[in-house]
Specification:
heterotetramer; A: alpha+beta; Aldehyde Oxidoreductase, domain 3; four-stranded mixed beta sheet; four-stranded antiparallel beta sheet; 4 helices; 33% helix; B: alpha+beta; five-stranded mixed beta sheet; globular
Chain lengths: 158, 83, 158, 83
């Protein structure tokens, strides 16, 4: 398992290579890359700035990876989340999951993304023509994250 | 006790963190938010709608009814928008 | 949309770059890479040889991509399937889906993989110590593919 | 009419394709499999269990009860194992 928070751009190739090097038990690799779009709610943006809670974020992401490893048969997981100012077209987050069979890698990648969206302590600020506004949390993301808990409530906070 | 603020909570209060020593009557996270809201205009603006504020005690998400206990670090922030 | 059948190794980086170049509307990219494992049903293998029906395979995959494009809001899809002899650790298939929001990219990638496993005219032969045997189709793959049809039957054949 | 065979169907029959002209009574894909199975030992071996054989007419998957019609190319193969 690898978790990294960094401002520097992501190198998906190097990360996948690090996960698979010298192994022949991996049959499936899913990567998810989240990219800064050039508009938010229909209006163009100049950049996103991601604020985060460093000490909490790393531990929080690691816990969710451990949870994914309990739920699915995974052979490797890497999560890298960027912070700071990110321009449209640049990558924000990279999740890589490896498994013998594709279902485990797909489910774990979706689970991790749903949790990163709703639970990892990151906050996006949108920059438009020089002034900033905070991105609102989306109820659709909460609903997506709720899929993974038996009760539909947020088990991790209880 | 160290209190941290993030995103617009930080912007409204005008600082990222501070050391505070809440009085004995402050038992839960909700109590702490009410107490903080009474500390001045910037705080009452930040905690205007406490329902939307999330909290973490010692870097773990908690609900507003959680007891503060012997917390060393409590953070307040809006709903997360990472990923 | 891009579909390619080739013996040559895959270059996922170049394929993602081709899909995203100069665009700022893409917010999510999912890649699935299927890799030749070093064992099949618990016994080590020397290689896989993939036979295919060239004229049918390309059209069949293209039709499934069109179906995915009807079902989800996709901004780009690339499917590359290798054929011929493939050694353990080498890539067999690459699916890339791009969308504004992650759910579309994830769902489309899973849909395409389920269909490739059960409908694309490819057949895997396992090579063990010099002699070959054909890989049996897995009922788990049929069930996975059936998720996407309303009746649970194979709509495309009816 | 061009008939193609893939994977172990091809191996059992010993050829990848051939040109054949089935008689008038051969209406469906199932009829064609039965007629082919009667053409010799290698064919009866290949079509031993017709339930597991898949077919495509002019490069589209079809069921065994599909009429051949004016097909130009019919392929027989085991269940697919791509991906």
């Amino acid at each position: 398992m690898a978790v990294r928070l960094q401002h520097e751009p992501l190198d998906a190739v190097a990360e996948v290579a690090a996960l698979t090097r010298g192994r022949t038990d991996i049959g499936a690799i899913v990567t998810f890359t989240g990219i800064c779009r050039g508009s938010e709610d229909g209006a163009p943006i100049t950049a996103l700035t991601l604020e985060h809670y460093p000490d909490m974020a790393e531990a929080e992401i690691a816990r969710h990876i451990e949870e994914a490893e309990r739920r699915w048969a995974l052979l490797g997981v890497t999560v890298i989340h960027r912070y700071g100012r990110i321009a449209p077209g640049e990558e924000i987050v990279l999740v890589i999951t490896a498994s013998s069979h594709r279902q485990d890698a797909f489910a774990a990648a979706e689970f991790l993304m749903d949790y990163l969206k709703t639970r990892a302590p990151f906050w996006k600020q949108v920059e438009r023509a020089g002034h900033g506004s905070w991105v609102d949390a989306k109820s659709a993301d909460d609903q997506a994250a709720d899929r993974w808990t038996a009760t539909g409530h947020d088990a991790a906070a209880e | 006790m160290k209190i941290l603020y993030f995103a617009w909570v930080r912007e409204r209060i005008g600082k990222a963190d501070e050391e505070l020593d809440p009085p004995a009557g402050v038992v839960t996270v909700a109590d702490l938010m009410r107490w903080l809201a009474g500390r001045g205009e910037e705080y009452s603006y930040a905690f205007d709608n406490p329902k939307v504020i999330r909290a973490a005690i010692d870097r773990l998400h908690v609900r507003a009814d959680t007891a503060i206990g012997s917390a060393r670090e409590i953070a307040f922030f809006p709903p997360m928008t990472g990923g």
